[in-house]
Every structure is written in C-alpha cells, then in structure tokens.
Design goal:
alpha+beta, 200 residues, two-stranded antiparallel ribbon, TF_IIIC_su-5_HTH, RNA polymerase III type 2 promoter sequence-specific DNA binding, 6 helices
Length: 200
C-alpha cells in the first residue's frame, strides 16, 4: 500500500481495488492506516495519503474528480460485478469485439477509455484517468484561482472544466452505445438470414 501512495498521493476506491486486487471490505479496513477519505469537494471520493494536501498543490488538479452518471444500457451494470468476464468495445473500424477481460484491462477499469463502456452506471474519475483530449487540454492550462488558492468547489481548474469533461465522456459513451446497438442489430439480421437460407 505504501508503494501505491508513492506512485500517486490520492486514489479512488475503485482504482485501489483495481491496482491491488483487494476487495472492498479489506480496503475499508486497511485504508485508514495509510490515508484519510475526502468526502466532497474537488477531490471528493478520494483516499488521500497522510501529509498531502491537494489544496496547496496546483499540480493536484490532475487528481480532481468528476462524477458521471450514465444512461441505462443493458451492457452497463447498475453496480460493480463481483467478477467481470467480458467487455464490449467498438474499434475504429466500427466492428464489435467481445472478449475476456485481460488482467491489464481489469487493472484499468477505473479509467475512462474512449470507445469502451464504463464498468458501472455511476463512475468517479480522477481527471488524469480520463483518456479524452478535452481532459488533457484542461489539465495543461495554467490557471490561477483568485488569491492563487484552490477554490472550494472547482479546485485548481476553471469553473466550466468539470462540466465540459463530463459532457464529453457522456457523449463518447453515447456514441459507443449506439455503435454497439447498431452492430448487434446487423448481426441479428445476418443470423435471421442464415436461418432463412437453411430453411429454404
């Protein structure tokens, strides 16, 4: 656990679970020995290493969290599954691929990856774990809040940043969902054609 907090001073619960393989109940027991929990604000839902204060570190903008609630989709579970066995992604070619979740993919389930559906309907992402250009663009900004201190609501970022990033994540998931549905509909049509051919 010490190595984890040397890598990064703050983590979401899901990230800790993915990085360590520990179950939630074990994490709840262990974490108070290494970190304190931030319940709300720019770094809400993060476990923060003792001695580190993101409000005093402008580079901590990369760890600020954005909560995203996704629309219902049959391939996005309401709650985390005990064991994820498959994933749905859309490749740039538009083809669908369903495959067993590899160890590396399971370890990155706390990140937002374009073209891949989230692991649960409500996610908390640290901005550095959002693989979209808009997140990188905002993190690259040199923004100084009034008084050069972290804003209680927006942290080290402009007020519009989180909404813009959240909207782009939702738009990307919507595109992915629509593509998956379209590909599945095409495949269903092909299967029906095959059955008709066999009956003929």
């Amino acid at each position: 656990m010490n190595e984890l907090f040397e890598e990064r001073p703050v983590w979401t619960r899901q990230a800790i679970s993915c990085k360590t393989g520990l179950e939630d109940q074990v994490i709840k027991i262990l974490m108070p020995k290494y970190a304190f929990y931030i319940q709300s604000g720019p770094w809400g839902r993060l476990w923060c290493r003792f001695g580190y204060d993101p409000r005093k570190d402008p580079t901590a903008r990369q760890y600020q969290t954005v909560m995203v609630s996704f629309r219902r989709h049959r391939k996005i579970p309401e709650r985390p599954r005990l064991k994820m066995t498959d994933k749905w992604t859309i490749r740039t070619s538009g083809s669908r691929q369903k495959a067993e979740l590899t160890d590396s993919e399971a370890a990155n389930a706390y990140m937002y990856t374009p073209g891949q559906l989230p692991s649960v309907r409500q996610m908390w992402y640290s901005l550095c774990d959002v693989g979209l250009q808009i997140a990188a663009d905002y993190l690259a900004l040199v923004f100084e809040p009034p008084g050069n201190v972290a804003d209680a609501q927006h942290g080290w970022l402009p007020s519009e940043a989180l909404d813009a990033i959240r909207n782009e994540i939702k738009n990307d998931v919507k595109r992915t969902s629509n593509l998956i549905d379209a590909v599945e509909a095409d495949e269903m049509g092909e299967e029906e054609d095959d059955v008709d051919d066999w009956l003929d």
